[in-house]
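Summary of Year 1 activities. Much of the first year was spent building the evaluation harness for sequence design. The harness presents a backbone, in tokenized form, and records the residue chosen at every position. We chose the following record to illustrate the format because it has been used consistently in internal testing since the harness was completed.
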């Protein structure tokens, strides 16, 4: 079956690349043996649509043209499907290989590997790692455990609104949210979705680990303008606690919370038995981050941060 499908895809690609005019489904069916053997029109149509989608997924640019009679034709122009010369030095090739490794644990592993294969076919050198021996112990990874990642990634790509149930850290039960997704960003090992919340009429950021149930797509157009990627990243950074405009004072158990220690602007060790005192930047999202360290952190001030952390802990305790 795999060999038959590969041969069928190759024949379809050759037909579309070899024609000077758009070919109709009827003409393609009469030119490819596997299509001629299809039992009926419905079976052929399903097979052809799958093959067309598979070729586009592989990178073939297939044009759909409607002629004067209203018939639909298909062709793949050679100039649109010719890869320009690839001129990369060894370090640039190594950088692309390193970037592809980032996605080895995610669902994009196949796409990243396929992209490298296409570049190598176009002339990219099979270079070894120029940093081997210097940074060989460090390998980038972006773990993706949330089931919501893939449907949200596709929705961002295709600009499709989505609906999902979302439980805020201070809420006991999830709420249904209708969102126009903009982009997915990873901060501090957590994935966030930035988008436009239709019910609230404003931009919002959602942590994927708090999305419950299935992400449902909606066939509708966006109602809000999509900002550029830099603005989206700034929004996620702010909601994830990267933008700080004041300081907080916390006690941290000795030997714990190394990410907090790395962010600290001041540390007093041994202020109490088994406890250190840290001054850390305080911005939006710090309360959620502090809760992750559980009993190893005690917030001393300011009062509003302490109250927010207590509220979140109570919500967690309620279930």
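For this record, the design step produced the sequence shown next.
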């Amino acid at each position: 079956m795999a060999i038959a499908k590969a041969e069928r895809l190759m024949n379809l690609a050759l037909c579309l690349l070899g024609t000077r005019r758009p070919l109709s489904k009827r003409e393609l069916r009469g030119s490819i043996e596997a299509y001629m053997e299809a039992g009926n029109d419905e079976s052929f149509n399903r097979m052809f649509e799958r093959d067309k989608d598979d070729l586009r997924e592989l990178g073939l640019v297939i044009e759909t043209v409607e002629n004067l009679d209203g018939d639909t034709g298909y062709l793949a122009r050679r100039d649109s499907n010719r890869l320009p010369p690839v001129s990369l030095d060894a370090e640039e090739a190594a950088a692309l290989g390193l970037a592809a490794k980032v996605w080895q644990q995610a669902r994009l592993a196949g796409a990243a590997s396929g992209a490298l294969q296409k570049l190598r076919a176009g002339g990219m050198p099979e270079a070894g790692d120029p940093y081997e021996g210097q940074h060989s112990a460090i390998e980038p990874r972006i773990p993706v455990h949330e089931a919501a990642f893939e449907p949200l990634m596709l929705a961002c790509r295709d600009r499709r609104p989505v609906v999902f149930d979302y439980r805020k850290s201070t809420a006991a039960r999830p709420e249904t949210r209708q969102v126009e997704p903009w982009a997915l960003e990873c901060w501090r090992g957590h994935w966030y979705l930035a988008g436009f919340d239709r019910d609230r009429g404003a931009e919002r950021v959602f942590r994927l680990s708090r999305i419950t149930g299935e992400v449902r797509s909606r066939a509708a157009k966006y109602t809000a303008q999509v900002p550029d990627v830099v603005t989206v990243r700034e929004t996620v950074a702010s909601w994830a606690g990267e933008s700080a405009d004041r300081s907080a004072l916390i006690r941290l158990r000795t030997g714990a919370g190394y990410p907090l220690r790395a962010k600290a602007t001041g540390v007093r060790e041994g202020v109490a038995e088994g406890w250190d005192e840290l001054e850390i930047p305080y911005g939006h999202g710090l309360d959620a981050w502090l809760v992750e360290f559980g009993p190893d952190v005690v917030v001393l001030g300011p009062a509003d941060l302490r109250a927010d952390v207590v509220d979140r802990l109570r919500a967690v305790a309620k279930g």
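The chain has a mean pLDDT of 81. Quantitative recovery figures across the full test set are reported in Table 2.
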